[in-house]
Amino acid sequence: MRRMRKSAERRTSWGAPDLDEEGNAIYDQFSDKQIVLQYVMRSWNAVVNYSQMIRDPSRDKLLPDPLKEPYYQPPYTLVLEMTGVLVHPDWTYQTGWRFKKRPGIDFFLSQVGAPTFEVVIYTHEAPLTAFSVIDALDPNGYIMYRLFRDATRYEDGHHIKDLDCINRDLSKVIVLDWNEKSVKSHQRNALKLKEWKGNDDDRYLIDLALLLKTIATSEVEDVRTVIDYYNQFDDPIEAFRENQRKLQEQQELMDRMNQEKMTRPPLLPRSLFGSRF
Fold this sequence. Notes:
The protein is of the alpha/beta class.
């Protein structure tokens, strides 16, 4: 009976005004309405607020403030989707569902981890699913922070990564995600990628690590300018490979020219052969 009475009290309090410490009703924007209308409008307002709470990120600052001296804060932040970038959900009769590790991921994390980048997993997966997968992917601890589905903004059936809440300078933030809809609010920060479907001959992460390492070592002031350049190509990584090939050819040409200068016999002064004058 006591449990039923408490349940009934909760049902009758739905839509009631908040009470102060003395048990008096607190005046709100609905207090001047008719009593029935007050309860209806408060109930509806609670539903709207709860729905908005589900859609919005769970907190305004998804990452803590950047580290200050004597601690070291990497100059750039790398935000990674997990599924389709680092792993692929795979099913077999022998193993059932599992996440398949992408080739080259160990090299990739070793190249983009601190001190070069602050690495953040920001995924639409639920923490119950993703936490153990990340632990298995990163035994060396290159990934500094983990953000899950509750940290996304839910709009039109999609989990959107809200970089406005990430608490970092966006000129230094690079996002890697194959789903354009999940980064639609900050497309200039997102390098255009293709979803990895689980093929074993993939070497994308190796070239991607080299591109990111090049950006970091070049001390790029605003990474969005580099992302704008590479996103104009259908395959940014293929464009990077081509640029690297051209640079290598130019370097080899310069090396050959320098080698020829070193092996060429020196010109003798004209005075050694006499002068007509």
